[in-house]
Amino acid sequence: MTKQTWERFFDKAETVRAFVAELDGRVVGIAHFLFHCSTSRFSDVCYLQDLFTEEICRGRGVGRALIQRVLDAAQEAGSSRVYWTTQTSNVAGRALYDKMAEHHGFIVYSHEL
Ligand SMILES: CC(C)(COP(=O)(O)OP(=O)(O)OC[C@H]1O[C@@H](n2cnc3c(N)ncnc32)[C@H](O)[C@@H]1OP(=O)(O)O)[C@@H](O)C(=O)NCCC(=O)NCCS
């Protein structure tokens, strides 16, 4: 990542937001999210872009707490939906997500430019 890209994250106008999870004053987890308008809803939807728990802290509720915090923030902001993607092979992620959300069968395509 370039210095300019990093600087964007600290720009107040930047739309990507973050929550961090702390344990004993140390960051052990992060969630990045953003809001965008939807062509099928009256209110904005929230995209949870990244979720990460430090390896030694996994299985202790950090990921669940971060997702819940994003859900709360989205609700407070008047958003009607939070969504995120993961790889079908992400066993740990899906074990958590299946408890907190529904999988509606969509798959993701992307094209690098
Ligand atoms: C996915 C990830 C964020 C989960 O974070 P975490 O802090 O370990 O998750 P939690 O401790 O909150 O897990 C909550 C639930 O998921 C289940 N779970 C978590 N990891 C699991 C695993 N490896 N196997 C089975 N179940 C698991 C737990 O049983 C737990 O359920 P419970 O609360 O009912 O007991 C973490 O594994 C991670 O950072 N992975 C690498 C990065 C990644 O894949 N990010 C997501 C990309 S979409």
Automatic annotation (TrEMBL):
Transmembrane segments: none annotated. Keywords: Transferase. Gene3D superfamilies: 3.40.630.30. It comes from the Bacteria. Residues 1-113 form the N-acetyltransferase domain. CDD domains: NAT_SF (cd04301). This is GNAT superfamily N-acetyltransferase.
